[in-house]
Design a protein that fits this description.
Structural class: mainly alpha
Distance between the termini: 42 Å
Number of helices: 10
Length: 255
């Protein structure tokens, strides 16, 4: 396991170095040396603009994990999948890497319309110099907030708006991201825990039946979890659980 972590860290380091090398080659105003990243002085506005854009892209990449967790469907999906694994009692099966990978690809699938909208209305016009950086940021912010507000409860929005002492706006999109983002997160947590509760019920019934059967047979020393786990897996396979769970998760975001 330790060797695998070392290999993964090495691969990530090489990818980061390759990315930085690409940035240095693409932007004449940026160079990489042993001392780090250096922004060279230049009088060419085009070089300055390209350097700033690339630095902004690197900044976005550095906070991308936080954006992925806080502003997308990733939170709900990963919690539901964790509830499924715990309710079945399979411990580390499927492994964390598989669960996180499935949650990531489902997130990309669900967020693809939003990313396409941002690319079409903000990123492409900005790269073509048809809009300014401020307009691109404002457009992206509105698109992201519209997506989050669809799944955010009014009660949660009112909570953070009252704490931040924000006056009631004419449109919900006028609320700042500092209010919408935490409200969206606790709304997602609420929805994920509700779905997790519904997942627990059928497996809990199996646990109770197995425990009662073992107790009636006088086999109190045998752990009920050991006996009930195969029946849980069998039930999950009989109802085509992965297909049903994935369909339920996706439909919970379709509004």
């Amino acid at each position: 396991m330790q060797k695998k972590k070392v290999v993964i860290c090495l691969i990530l380091t090489l990818l980061c170095f390759a990315l930085l090398s690409t940035v240095a080659l693409a932007a004449p105003g940026i160079s990489i040396s042993d001392d780090g990243i250096t922004i060279n002085s230049t009088d060419d506005p085009g070089e300055i603009s390209a350097s700033i854009k690339l630095l902004l892209i690197l900044t976005v990449l550095s906070v991308l994990p936080s954006i992925l967790i806080m502003m997308t469907s990733f939170t709900r999906i990963i919690i539901v999948l964790s509830f499924l694994r715990n309710s079945m009692g399979t411990q580390q099966t499927p492994p964390n890497q598989v669960v996180i990978g499935l949650a990531l690809f489902l997130t990309f699938f669900l967020m693809s319309p939003v990313m396409a909208d941002i690319n079409q209305n903000a990123l492409v016009p900005f790269t073509e110099n048809r809009i300014s950086l401020e307009e691109a940021i404002d457009t992206s912010e509105v698109i992201i907030k519209n997506n989050m507000l669809k799944y955010t409860r009014d009660k949660d929005l009112a909570l953070f708006a009252s704490i931040a002492e924000v006056e009631p706006p004419e449109e919900l999109t006028d609320l700042p991201l500092t209010v919408v983002t935490p409200a969206f997160m606790i709304s997602e947590l609420n929805t994920a825990f509700r779905m997790g509760f519904m997942l627990y019920i059928p497996f809990l019934v199996i646990d109770m039946v197995v425990a009662s059967t073992l107790m009636s047979m006088g086999m109190m020393m045998l752990p009920p979890v050991m006996i009930s786990m195969p029946f849980k897996i069998l039930l999950f396979l009989l109802v085509d659980g992965w297909n049903l769970l994935t369909e339920t998760i996706i439909k919970s975001f379709v509004r």
